[in-house]
């Protein structure tokens, strides 16, 4: 398998600095062989590129791109805590989608994150997942992604 840093470079992705918490929590914590990454919003350079509900102000395609950004932010949190080379498996991803009434495309939105993990980590990036529609997310974000990763 290609090292995660090499795969990120091939994909043209530079991991950002870890997004500072917007409340009382840590970006990621390790317990035993697992890293639990707090819900990541799609911050780019400290700002949300778009706010609103998916299926209303935000298209499903734009939301999937933002879920991908959430996944990049999650990888940055893992890398800062333990290093991506220690990732054995992305075990579980939970994606939250701020959904307009009647929007049922949450799985396709969260594919933006799932596909990124698989692209960077190969089979180790494939995971169990939940994709949930919610009424609101912090700061009006359209998506949020949390991750559990097993590490060596």
TrEMBL record:
- In the UniProt record, the signal sequence range is none
Domain of life of the organism encoding this protein:
Bacteria
The record's annotation in InterPro entries points to: Endoribo_LPSP/chorism_mut-like, RutC-like_sf, YjgF/YER057c/UK114
SUPFAM superfamilies from the UniProt entry: YjgF-like
What protein name is recorded for this chain?
Enamine deaminase RidA, house cleaning of reactive enamine intermediates, YjgF/YER057c/UK114 family
Source organism of the structure: Actinoplanes derwentensis
